[in-house]
Amino acid sequence: MSRYLEGKVAIVTGSTSGMGIGMAEALAGAGAKVVLNGFGEADEIEALRARIVEEAGVEVAYDPADLMEPEEVVGLVERTEARWGSVDVLCNNAGIQHVALTEHFPAERWDAQIAILLSAPFHAIRAALPGMKARGWGRIVNTSSTSGLRGSAKKPAYCAAKHGILGLTKVVALEAAEDGITCNAICPGWVLTGMSRPQIEVRAQQEGVSYDEAMERMVGSHPTKQFVTKEQIGALVAFLCTDAASQITGASIPIDAGLQAK
Ligand code: NAD
């Protein structure tokens, strides 16, 4: 059971930081070869890559594709297939945030968020599906959010994209249902990452409190009063790649410390 992804190849977009690292670690821990993707300092990315190789005993590569560009998204899938012969697990996870009232929201930030959060998953899925169908096995996991399940003021593009990815998830799940492929979305609550920390800083400024107090207020919205961890995210994604999860498809799965129960 522990190496159930041996022989499989996984791409995790946005895995140079935050939740994507948790996914990459968990999939590598289950035996998959993993392609890391995202931005960052070259030496830090190489240290991350080497650490996962060391800890999991699998091959790990890094691909710098900029997911703003459709052809780079397709290139990421094609290079992976050329390198290791397949893309069996596709985690569409990369993301950016911008927070502003809709009437002040820069059109360019709208375009960028839709490109990375919604269009890039489409291009990656479109490129990876033929190979998955030919092999009769695949796992696609899209990172949505609690903002994919309900509105969140000042996040028009983010909410639109995170709702949209749930629709794409359902369509792909239906189309691939008889091909041994599942397509699911995860809807995390707050996770302490490169995306949420700047939002804590803004909140601290706006509410005139310390960073720690702003963090307490953020996590205070969670019924459990705890953040979700990247390790918990990774474990959920890895579970969705098991045979036990083969009948879970088209689902939008909250991992949100109880937020949806409110
Ligand atoms: P993060 O900022 O720590 O990581 C984002 C990753 O995306 C980084 O690796 C970054 O380099 C990469 N990225 C950004 N733009 C890119 C581009 N153009 N091309 C390639 N890679 C790019 O943030 P995170 O919180 O780990 O976010 C991961 C996903 O989780 C996002 O889709 C985010 O919307 C979602 N999410 C986050 C939270 C949270 O509380 N942190 C909650 C729910 C959902």
CATH superfamily of the largest domain: NAD(P)-binding Rossmann-like Domain
Number of domains: 2
How many beta-strand elements? Answer: 7
Biggest sheet strand order reads: 3-2-1-4-5-6-7
Helix and strand succession? EHEHEHEHEHEHHHE
CA radius of gyration is 18 Å
> For the residues shown, what is the average pLDDT?
98
What is the CATH topology descriptor of the largest domain?
Answer: Rossmann fold
User: Which overall shape is indicated by the principal axes computed on the Cα atoms?
Assistant: globular
Largest sheet features = 7 strands, parallel
Residue fraction in strands: 5-15%
What's the CATH class of the largest domain, please? Answer: Alpha Beta
Specify the number of helices: 8
What is the CA-CA span between the terminal residues?
35 Å
Poorly predicted spans: none
Query: What's the architecture of the largest domain in CATH terms?
Result: 3-Layer(aba) Sandwich
How much helical structure, as a percent, in the residues? 40-55%
Task: Give every kind of bound small molecule, once each.
Answer: nicotinamide-adenine-dinucleotide
**Class by SSE composition:** alpha/beta
